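input
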Amino acid sequence: MLPDLGVCPSLAKGGGPGCASACFRRRVQATARLVGAGLLLAFLGALGCAGRAPGLSMAEGDTLLSVDYEIFGKVQGVFFRKYTQAEGKKLGLVGWVQNTDRGTVQGQLQGPISKVRHMQEWLETRGSPKSHIDKANFSNEKVILKLDYSDFQIVK
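output
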């Protein structure tokens, strides 16, 4: 937690001029931490990995959501996993997708709520061009503080 950069508490309580230098040092240290954090975010953004690497949270104001899914219908042998991965990446989501022994496709999505909702709609209504979706189940939906994956993977 960064210190309050408002009025020097010692001066507000009637402290002498000697506290001014201590307050100044605290403000410089706090500003240096903010600048350092800003430089780190700018560097990660330039590398294209800000908010995408495991353990990093998204930008402030973007609530992250994780949801598991299972898709029923003609979803195997029709490039459903490949199209799911491509759509997830296009939306900036992370997670995974795999075929099941039951003839379904299952996986997990993680990312900003609006993007996850868009992907859920895509999984329910669109899928790959040759697929036929009968039903989509979504479960274990929860708000998360950080992403567990670095990209969107097809699991074999």
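quick obs: The longest helix spans residues 18-47.
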